[in-house]
Amino acid sequence: MSKKIQLIDMIYAALFAVLISILGYLVIPLPFSPVPLTGQTLAVMLAGSVLSPLQAGLSLITFIFMGIIGLPVFSGGASGIGVIVGSNGGYLIGFFIGAVIISLIRNKSNSIPLLIVANILGGIIIVYILGVLWLSFITKMGIYKAFTLGALPFIPGDIIKAIIAAFIAKRINALRRKAISY
């Protein structure tokens, strides 16, 4: 059973691709890590928590392709294929897979605990696994060092983002349901 992509899917995908891009400008470089602290993970969690799996996937594909073609959408305004094949590329691919997984786990539920669990599994664990493995491969550092530099410092902040995303998504989802019922 295939689902046709409808105009609303493209609109939501575009809106969230822009949101992810904008929050990429909220950057805090860390002197001890090649990976900066950004607002993009919050936007990725929101995409998964609000959109359908198709819409979430489209939004992240759109975001990634915007960056590949040269639009300054990656963290700090970076762009180009070099970002994807560089030390941060695994995190970007993790964003795509993570957002879809969040949406699949959520499955139209608006439960705060489920949204938090979905955000932690998709938005933190999946993103970190892919990001750390890629960081280790590209930089030739061991997995332990890649985890220590590319994941460990971000865990507390990303858990807070997962909780914030759950509460924002609950409100957005409630407003969308109310608007549809009119």
From TrEMBL:
Molecular function as annotated in GO: biotin transmembrane transporter activity
Transmembrane segments: 7-28, 81-105, 112-137, 143-168
Gene3D superfamilies reported in the protein's UniProt record: 1.10.1760.20
Nucleotide-binding among keywords: no
Principal localisation: membrane
Leader peptide range in chain numbering: none
Record's keyword terms, sorted: Cell membrane, Membrane, Transmembrane, Transmembrane helix, Transport
The keyword Cell membrane appears for this protein: yes
Database matches in PANTHER family: BIOTIN TRANSPORTER BIOY, BIOTIN TRANSPORTER BIOY-RELATED
UniProt family annotation: Belongs to the BioY family.
Protein name per Swiss-Prot or TrEMBL: Biotin transporter
Natural source organism: Clostridium manihotivorum
Lineage summary: Bacteria, Bacillati, Bacillota, Clostridia, Eubacteriales
